[in-house]
Amino acid sequence: MYAVSRSPASPPVVAMIGGGQLARMTAQAAIALGQTLRVLAVRSDESAAQVTPDVVLGSHTDLEALRQVAKGATAFTFDHEHVPTEHLDALVADGVNVAPPPGALVHAQDKLLMRRRLSDLGAPVPRFAEVTSVQDAIAFSEQVGGPAVIKTVRGGYDGRGVVLAADTDEVCSVVERYLADGVAVMIEERVAMRRELAALVARSPFGQGAAWPVVETVQRDGICVTVLAPAPDLSEELGSAASELALRIASSLGVVGVLAVELFETVDGQLLVNELAMRPHNSGHWTMDGARTSQFEQHLRAVLDYPLGDTSALAPTVMGNVLGAPEIPAMSMDERVHHLFARMPDAKVHLYGKEERPGRKIGHVNIVGGPAESMTSLRERAERAAHWLSHAQWTDGWDPHA
Ligand code: ADP
């Protein structure tokens, strides 16, 4: 139905489903390539809708809206994974270049399917089971003999839909509640971990793959707050194993675009895959300032089947997420930015144009290391900068007038 041939006269058009910050930052990368990102946003005041003139207003669950966005687009891609698979299949049948293709994307949408497929591929994952009754959950808990995690099979993000159950009683009550609401759930072992890592890669339809250095992600209440790039004290062996695993997953699943593989590093030094995301990802925000090619440019390159960019780091970098404070400060964001720049001239600020709400991701700060700065100092500064932007308070009590 739609011709996706490339016209020499006009730049390619990438259409992205979702108007959040990932689309906003992809639009920035599109500008540099002489392109204009088209987005499907629910509201005109969403992050990405504020910055691109090519906005279609509508829902990602409305096939007609999806078709409208796809019209004439060279590639059709995502800032979130919530588009129903049957709609994506319909678009593919229309001839739309869906990237990543639905057969790959479903592994970022459905955690149970993902766990099964990765097990089949021989990729290490936590022990898991499908849960269709409370009995299933009890049987799994007894078999594993340790604490368990209940997850909704679909629709979770930023820790929503993930319950770390304290004991079997809690497992039962959580499972009962979900099943009563008709929500599909699964159970898995609670991993004794040293820390969380992320291996970010990109793959093009041509089959080229590229991996950024493996990073450590720090979560609070299920939300990523800090990313350390590269992951400190990661052995070269484990780092390469993580990158190779991510590249292998990307090629086995036929991913097109950026793939984030969220990993657990267990207390005994093994890697386990937690989650897959097939789009630019919070663990890659550091690449905007700390790598030769940002994940947003790379995602465009990949979905357009351009040669991929150099993924090497310019220097160690720490990213701090700016999360809305419990109480929105009286000081304006403008003034907060002003103060931050006065104190930290090297802070790279990325704000998403979002209204402040407690816990909401409203921006991030990257601090790229100088020649001699330690990771500890970088982290302290990035977290201090991010906390300042959200709370208008310096964590060390610094007073500019003192
Ligand atoms: P989401 O879809 O919200 O990103 P995840 O599956 O990534 O959900 O889980 C969110 C967080 O919960 C993880 O980053 C991790 O901190 C914790 N978590 C998830 N699964 C496990 C597990 N099996 N063992 C221990 N912690 C887990």
What does this protein structure show overall?
The chain has 402 residues and is α+β, with helices and mostly antiparallel strands. Among the domains are: 13-98, 3-Layer(aba) Sandwich (Rossmann fold); 127-189, ATP-grasp fold, A domain (Dna Ligase, domain 1, 2-Layer Sandwich), CATH 3.30.1490; 315-402, 2-Layer Sandwich (Alpha-Beta Plaits), CATH 3.30.70. 33% of the residues lie in helices and 24% in strands. It is built from twelve helices and 17 strands. The strands form three sheets. Strands 9, 10, 11, 12, 13, 14, 15, 16 and 17 form a nine-stranded antiparallel β-sheet that branches. Strands 3-2-1-4 form a four-stranded parallel β-sheet, covered by helices on one side. A hairpin with a 2-residue loop joins β11 (215-220) and β12 (223-229). α1 crosses α10 (295-303), α4 (102-109) crosses α5 (111-120) and α6 (134-144) runs antiparallel to α7 (168-180). Bound molecules: adenosine-5'-diphosphate (ADP). Adenosine-5'-diphosphate binds at residues 126, 149, 151, 156-160, 162, 188, 190-191, 196, 219, 222, 262, 274-275.
Estimated structural class: alpha+beta
Shape: globular
Number of distinct beta strands: 17
Helix content: 25-40%
Averaged pLDDT: 95
DSSP helical segment count: 12
Instruction: Kindly report the CATH topology of the domain at 315-402.
Output: Alpha-Beta Plaits
N/C terminus separation: 67 Å
Give the percentage of residues in beta strands.
15-25%
Bound molecules: adenosine-5'-diphosphate
Q: What characterizes the major β-sheet?
A: 9 strands, antiparallel
Q: Ranges with pLDDT <50 over ≥5 residues?
A: none
Radius of gyration: 21 Å
**Helix-strand topology string:** EHEEHEHHHEHEEHEEEEEHEEHHEHEEH
